C-alpha cells in the first residue's frame, strides 16, 4: 500500500487523484509543507512525498510518472511517439502553468516578506492567461491527449484550480468546461474529500 504525504491543498492532490484514478489503496498523512512531519520523508520539507514500501519518492510529477508507468495506466507507453508527445505536453504545462503559479505563490506567501515583489504578480497573471489561451487551442477532444485521461490532464486541472484560488483571471469557456468536467470525475471528488 502507498502512503501520500502532504495536504490536499498542495501538489499532493495530484498524487491522491492519480491513486484514486488507478484504484490503488493508500494512506494519507496530511503533513504541512516544511513541517517536522514532512521532513521525516523529505529533508527539504517539500510535499508531496510518496512511500512505496521502504522507498520514498518526491516531486509530484516524478511520482505521477512513476505510478503511471508502474501500473500501465493514464499514460502512453514509454519509448513511443505518443509518450514523447505526452511528455512534451507535461513539460509545457510545468513551464507555462505550474512555474508561473509557483512564482506568484512565492511572492504572495512563501518568501519572507522583505523578499517578496508583489508587483510581479500582474505580469505572471498576464503570462498565465496567454498560456491558458494556447492550451485551450490545443484541446482536441475531452482530454489533452485525446480520448483518455493521462498524466497531463491531472497536472493541467490542478493548475487551473490553483489559478482560481490564487485570484488569476478566469480562463476561456472551453478550458473552463474542460476543468469542470475533470473536477466532476469520481476519483477527483474522492481525493478532494480527504
UniProtKB/TrEMBL annotation:
InterPro entries: Glutathione-S-Trfase_C-like, Glutathione-S-Trfase_C_sf, Glutathione_S-Trfase, Glutathione_S-Trfase_N, Thioredoxin-like_sf
Superkingdom field: Bacteria
Sequence ranges assigned to domain GST N-terminal in this UniProt record: 1-75
Domain GST C-terminal positions: 79-194
Molecular-function annotations in GO: transferase activity
UniProt keyword terms in alphabetical order: Transferase
Keyword Coiled coil in record: no
Entry-linked SUPFAM superfamilies: GST C-terminal domain-like (SSF47616), Thioredoxin-like (SSF52833)
PANTHER family with a match to the protein in the record: GLUTATHIONE S-TRANSFERASE GSTA (PTHR44051:SF8), GLUTATHIONE S-TRANSFERASE-RELATED (PTHR44051)
Protein name, as recorded: Glutathione S-transferase family protein
Species the sequence originates in: Roseobacter denitrificans (strain ATCC 33942 / OCh 114) (Erythrobacter sp. (strain OCh 114))
